[in-house]
Design goal:
By secondary structure, the chain is α/β, with parallel strands linked by helices. It folds into two domains: about 25-120 and about 220-275, 3-Layer(aba) Sandwich (D-Maltodextrin-Binding Protein, domain 2), CATH 3.40.190; about 120-215, D-Maltodextrin-Binding Protein, domain 2. About 45% of the residues lie in helices and about 30% in strands. Strands 5-1-6-11-7-10-8-9 form an eight-stranded mixed β-sheet, sandwiched between helices.
């Protein structure tokens, strides 16, 4: 009986000593930091009322997941898309709220499956300066622009590296301006974010989309390998809650809501301030 009492006391003492360590481990990820492409409406863009924060369909979905997990997430503006990726790659930021899957990114980030959106990427040209286009080969011997470190899926990225002349720019606004000045032949970018930005810049009548799309890729939530919060529990729970959200149709609801949100913002002076 004495031995049993001693053993019980030992277990209680051990548990008491272990509890602070467990509390620290459980609490290290109570707050996550995310970023993404700031020129990506209706998926993601800078909040006109708080330009250091990103809003949009992707941000709303990530906030939903965070609430389900009982954590807080800050979705912040860290600069242009290329800088945002660097911030996540180094682990200074935990998550990207929407990225295509590529082999280089797989080396530095974990992807949360499934994809929550599929978005077509297209060829944008200056209206009146279009050229015959039926597929990737028709972009040869022409000069195009895209965002620095942007991707259109691994298959197209590999093709472009070997066959196309693409220049990287910091922002889509800059790419469209160069296109209208005749300094490039085309711009590669996603259809819906490109249309949203063209509308806000008053360029919609000057730009034309060539079909078919060069690709249609899934947007994923990604978690930096160097994030202090990247552990099996977080990856597993994010995947579980993402599956539930996609099955319920929530991403599409958020997309439609943010399409209207973006349009409404363009009707006010504050909506122009974000660019």
């Amino acid at each position: 009986m004495l031995e049993r009492g001693f053993y019980r006391s030992f277990l209680l003492l051990f548990a008491a000593l272990l509890m602070p360590a467990l509390a620290v481990a459980a609490g290290k990820c109570e707050r996550l930091v995310a970023t993404g492409n700031p020129e990506y409406p209706p998926y993601l863009w800078r909040d006109p009322q708080n330009p250091q924060q990103l809003i949009g369909a992707n941000a709303d979905l990530l906030q939903h997941l965070a609430k389900e997990l009982g954590v807080v997430v800050d979705i912040i503006y860290t600069g242009p898309w290329s800088r945002a990726q660097d911030e996540v790659r180094t682990g200074r930021v935990d998550l990207i709220a929407g990225a295509f899957l590529t082999l280089p990114r797989l080396e530095v980030m974990d992807y949360v499956h499934p994809a929550f959106f599929y978005t077509p990427s297209v060829v944008w040209v200056h209206r009146g300066a279009e050229f015959p286009y039926a597929g990737w080969d028709d972009l040869r011997n022409r000069t195009g622009d895209t965002l620095v470190n942007n991707s259109f899926g691994q298959a197209f990225d590999d093709y472009a590296k070997s066959n196309l002349t693409l220049e990287g720019v910091a922002s889509l606004t800059q790419a469209f301006q160069k296109l209208l000045l005749g300094r490039t032949d085309y711009v590669l970018y996603e259809r819906y974010p490109g249309q949203a930005l063209a509308d806000s810049l008053g360029m919609q009548d000057d730009l034309l989309v060539l079909d078919p799309p060069i690709s249609s890729e899934g947007l994923y939530l990604t978690l930096s390998h160097n994030s202090a919060c990247n552990d099996a529990w977080l990856r597993g729970m994010l995947a579980k809650k993402m599956n539930e959200a996609v099955a319920s149709g929530l991403p599409d609801v958020l997309l439609q809501r943010n399409l209207q949100r973006w349009k409404d913002q363009q009707l006010t002076p504050s909506g122009d301030a974000e660019q």
